[in-house]
Amino acid sequence: MDDFKNLLIFLIFLFFRLNNGQITPLTPTNSITITPLNDFRFSQFPIISSLGECSTITGKFLVVDDNANNEITKISIIQDKIGSQSLTKEGNHYLFSFWLSLNFTVSPLQMNITISSNSTSDVVYSYTQSCVELENPITILAESVFITKFKLKNYSNGSTLLVFNNGFGSFTALDDGTYLIVWDGKYVSSKTNLYDDWSFDILFYKKNKTFTVPSYFSFDKQLYAPTYNKTYYPNDIMDIGSNYTEFGQDYPPVLTNNVKTNIPHPFSGVSDLSYFYLQKPLKGKIGNMTYLNLLLCSTKYNSGDPLNFVYYDQYQNQTSKTPFVTKIYKFNVQNLGNIMLSNTTSKSPIIELFTVSFKNVVDYKFTIYQYTYDYKKFFKTWPYGFIKGSNSDYTHKTSIQSNMKRLSSYITTNYTIQTFSQSDGATIAVPKSTIPGLKAPTVVSYRFYETYTGFFILSVDFLSENGLENAYSSSLDINPGLLNLVSGSIYNGTLDFIFAINESPKVTLNDIYDNTFFLNEFDLLSINPLSQFKYPHQLYYNFNISNFYNISFSANNLNLEKDNYITVYLCNKDLPTDTTFIFYNVDDSSYTAPQLISKTPSTSLIYNSTLGCFTSRLIIQKNSIFFEVLGIFYSGQLSFFYSSMLPKSSRLFIKKSELDAQGPIFSFIKKINDKVDVSSNSVIVGWNFTISDEGNGFSHGYIKIMGSVDSSTYHYNFTIDDIVEGDKFNGIYQFVISVSTPCVSQEYSITNVELYDTNNVISIFELYTSKTFSAYYSNPFINFYQSGIDITKVSFTCTPSILDTTDPILKSFTVSKDSIDVGSNDRSIIFNFEIETNSTGTGLKIDQLPIVYILSKKMKLLECKSTLLSNNVTNYIYKCQIELPVSFGHPYPISYSLYGIVNNGGNFNGFTTEDLKLNGFPYYSNTTFSTDIPVVMSNHVIYSDIGGDLFLRGRGFSNSKNVEITYSQVGLTSQNLVPTIISHSIIKVTGIKPTSESILVKVETENYFSNSYTVYPIFFNETIPEPPETPTPTQTQTQTQTPTPTQIPTASPLPTNPPQECKGSCGGINKGYCSPTGCICYSPWVGETCSSQVIIVPPPKPDTGFPTTQFPDSINSNSNSSASDSGNTSEENNRPITFNSLISIVSLREIDYKGEVVVEHKFEKWYFTPITELKSQYITTINNNNTNVTATLEWFNKSTTIQFANENLEMNPSTIKYSIEISQYNFKQNLNNLQLIMFASFDASDPPKDICSSKQFGNTSTGDNSNYIKIQIDNHSLYGRFIKRAIIDDKVYSIENQLLDSSLNSISNSSSVQSYIGITIPFYKNYVVVDPDFSVLVDSNSVSSSSTNSMCNSSSSGLSKSQLIGIIIGSSCFAIAIVVGLIYLARKRHVQKLFLEKYSSRMKSK
């Protein structure tokens, strides 16, 4: 029998061996089974690559005993090594965990697991653990700019520390078992030949292995011209005698470097002999790019010490080195010094206060203080904590909530005050209570929900004996409080966490006693039944880069002088359709810092079942990138790669771009009344700033100014609309402060600046704080490094200068709520307070508004900035209102304090929480937290052109039954839609209409309504691919072609223009040729005789009130043509003339079959929407008719072919096209027509005496079958084209264009011409679209008195030929004509009065 048992054991053992089993029974199992849990590894790797052995073994096994009468008493591994073993029981399920510390070599190590029970003999399993030697060679997976990704053979765990033998750069172990190298520029600069391979050494066990990869620069072996035009900031920084002092804390000198080369990333940078800083692309284009280099010292140095730098540059395949020595003087950071903290404690049944104060030992100079309590901190500058005094003599005092309870007396709770980024200040211990033996929170169950593309919700059910205080997942904010609590209470509830597919959804829970629970991958929640925390299967997908070789784009070789809207396609049938890929866009200006990817915009590729491909939308902003769109693709936890690792056919390139990665900067600064004396009259002090941004143009900004004595603070938020003079590219802005007596002499300093361009590229100045890497590059004061920081200061002297140290009295302080539900939609709180000053004092500064601070127990601080309601000589009444963030402060009370009371005598005051309590004022409010009230907090992206599904994120959505949708866009009706509930915090709303304007949403549940939340759709307009450039004749320009649209049915015979006579040889061989229809002109020549040329002008600035276009008034000409005609060569006739033009839509009128007006609709108010920089939309509604008129104005920068109403139309450069759509119209009669009236005017400013004008209206001869109007003054013209067809009710119809100057009494003379054009539209039912366009021309011949239809001033008779004939024939009726003319003129002027006032004023204001 024993022999049989032994044979059975052997067969079982052999079975496991043959099946690669690594746990095998050595004895009969006796109903006991053992299973390794799925995070257990039978193979270990050395912790360090240079070791030849493994050192630790950990394991988790589930043991199940199916014998109900048996109980396992012990499980152990027999090893005489340091370690631990544990056994947890739930019913007949046991969890056996162990950790062993031992060294074993690559040979397999066998251990026995012994299971003892109370009724059977021991059961022994053999457990085999192997140590796998790290093998080489490595596999280079892919390369990018200064980045290499590689993998060790047979290695799938990224825990081993690789030992490198040379300083090539840095490396990172990734979750997928691969490694990422970021090559150091210092290593690259050490190469004699930039084309040589890059290499690194890895020390394996007892051997060293060298690996090489191709140099990045070897990929594009082009000659490289030497750098030219280096500019240094300050300009003498390369001189050892330089005395540059940092322009604010940590701002190093910089140099810009203009380079001409076709290499996308030429090698250049600066080294301080310890670290290499690669240059950053700043602005320009390939072939003419400006880079910026930092002169940053990476090691500590004393102010004024000689510093050694080397500037590296690339010449062909070699590096050139320019060493230099300079001095940098550090900016003086005024810290707290050796302060002494004192404290008081104030207790009550609900809230316990701990108040800390200190007296200053050094002057306050606007530094930022860091407040830390119980490992949680915030940063604040004045006035928080400044209770009394002035900057040179003040007391600082703050109150916090104490009464912390902890498990152990060894855990300390301290309160620290220090200067931000400085090792100063002081720390004081805060009393605490010790509560031993309390249980930490636990997670009892979890669920994953797939939400919008690439994102999941992790829903966690928890229990907390003491009450939950804080819960967070893989987030930068580890102190969100209870923001994620979506159901239940702090003792028994549900938490929702959102995470992307490339994030690890780990969870941390803290209760009110700071007991902590961690939920990590594969953690056991229960062993009976078995419940283990596992991520969604999509996170475990691990793809090869070859899966992505067939990525394609809707357009490539992009023109980034405009925004581009791209669709990305990934078509591979081998990819699972239930996954999502995330693409992080990394712009070219930050390619040297791949760690920034977490902050860059992302888009998700999701499976499109109709196409059978993964698709995504990508928006590339204008001027933001050059050469190539760099990005990183993520697919789950285990796969990511750089887009530059793909074949060129699967990468997105830029053909044309003018990079602008530099924010707006100050190019000129002028102080206003610096060092002025203030006696009796009020004066202003401040600055005039010229803000320059040559690429994108300035958009908006912020400036903060503070006083040197009383810290009085001024905040200026401003936009391009606040410009005093200039434009967005170079504009003057003024910032002034009014000073009047009584006052104290002091100095105002600029402490913070933020300037944004139209692409949201920012430049930042912060007087204090240690800088992020990007901030080094972006100081808007870069042009003033030479002159120094004094440019940011203005001072004044008060006569007399009064220092008023009297303290104000807080007469009243009220709070609107003593308890706040921070889970509801009514989280607003109002503070009213009154301050009284001494009648003999200087009074309060009314432009300095006190701030109420709201502090949670967990050190979250809010500011409520007050407004002054009323005041007299001594009393000042204030009010402030704030909405608290969801969950703020809960489950504790929130406390209040008041600071920032400033008088006119240089003194400030404040009141701590303790002060409010001692004076009998409200000093805290309790918090409650409802979880069933819907609150909308954010939304996932929705696009303007497709609408569709809208995902709303928030809380309280579990009983949602309706979502109210209200559209801002005129003509879109509201909706009530039933949502799909995904979780407590996510709902999906299907059926959103396409719109480019905002959408207001409100969620309704069984008992509540949510807040009104505004959704802003992302504008998307697919970019049409540009054709490759091909050689063209010299007389024509390359034109942009668009795909041929579907032909629209024709409903009526379409007009064909009669043949025109070819005049003037059509301008000659280089301008045009004669065809059967008339002259056909080569672009850019146009006109009846091809003698007019299109003028290239900048795009006009959109008028936000009316669909009006005024071409830039900088169209100048020397009118020597007319002078030569008359023989006059005087200086007066040779001066430049400025021409002005105006195009507008006047009205829509209904006319009967006789042409008489039935009703006329004047356009009073338009709604303006910018679509792109060159395209705008205007919408108006005709009252009592429900008819919408939509005018889309589009500017063409270059020759472009478009199609309208089945007709190909050539758009010349500098053409403005009006696309006008009119919706359904209620005609009085079916026989009536509509007539759209447009107005055009052209005039000359300060014209010579003998100038002439003319007007022509006729048919074009170019084959587009249109009418044209040409208004000419001297040798310049305004040219308009009116197509004789329209799209009406989905068909092409013939329409008529009519000159209405006689009936609408246009006014014209020799230097100013007006014209009205009527576009007549037949009866229709649904809609109509017409499409005129306009441009400005320069003519070969000026208008003279002999020209057709000319009008000249008195020196040329001032009348046209036809008018002269009429006067001669009618001379006998001269007196009657005068009377009639006077009556006519008076009536005409009366008719034109309102119109001229309206449009002439608009022309002057442009």
TrEMBL record:
<feature type="signal peptide">
    <location>
        <begin position="1"/>
        <end position="21"/>
    </location>
</feature>
<keyword id="KW-0472">Membrane</keyword>
<dbReference type="InterPro" id="IPR057709">
    <property type="entry name" value="DUF7949"/>
</dbReference>
<dbReference type="Pfam" id="PF22933">
    <property type="entry name" value="ComC_SSD"/>
</dbReference>
<dbReference type="InterPro" id="IPR054484">
    <property type="entry name" value="ComC_SSD"/>
</dbReference>
<feature type="region of interest" description="Disordered">
    <location>
        <begin position="1024"/>
        <end position="1061"/>
    </location>
</feature>
<feature type="domain" description="DUF7949">
    <location>
        <begin position="1063"/>
        <end position="1094"/>
    </location>
</feature>
<protein>
    <recommendedName>
        <fullName>EGF-like domain-containing protein</fullName>
    </recommendedName>
</protein>
<keyword id="KW-0812">Transmembrane</keyword>
<dbReference type="Pfam" id="PF23034">
    <property type="entry name" value="DUF7035"/>
</dbReference>
<feature type="domain" description="DUF7034">
    <location>
        <begin position="808"/>
        <end position="931"/>
    </location>
</feature>
<dbReference type="InterPro" id="IPR055463">
    <property type="entry name" value="DUF7035"/>
</dbReference>
<feature type="domain" description="ComC supersandwich">
    <location>
        <begin position="1124"/>
        <end position="1337"/>
    </location>
</feature>
<feature type="compositionally biased region" description="Low complexity">
    <location>
        <begin position="1032"/>
        <end position="1050"/>
    </location>
</feature>
<keyword id="KW-0732">Signal</keyword>
<feature type="domain" description="DUF7035">
    <location>
        <begin position="660"/>
        <end position="799"/>
    </location>
</feature>
<dbReference type="Pfam" id="PF25820">
    <property type="entry name" value="DUF7949"/>
</dbReference>
<dbReference type="InterPro" id="IPR055462">
    <property type="entry name" value="DUF7034"/>
</dbReference>
<feature type="compositionally biased region" description="Low complexity">
    <location>
        <begin position="1114"/>
        <end position="1130"/>
    </location>
</feature>
<dbReference type="Pfam" id="PF23033">
    <property type="entry name" value="DUF7034"/>
</dbReference>
<keyword id="KW-1133">Transmembrane helix</keyword>
<feature type="region of interest" description="Disordered">
    <location>
        <begin position="1101"/>
        <end position="1134"/>
    </location>
</feature>
<feature type="transmembrane region" description="Helical">
    <location>
        <begin position="1364"/>
        <end position="1386"/>
    </location>
</feature>
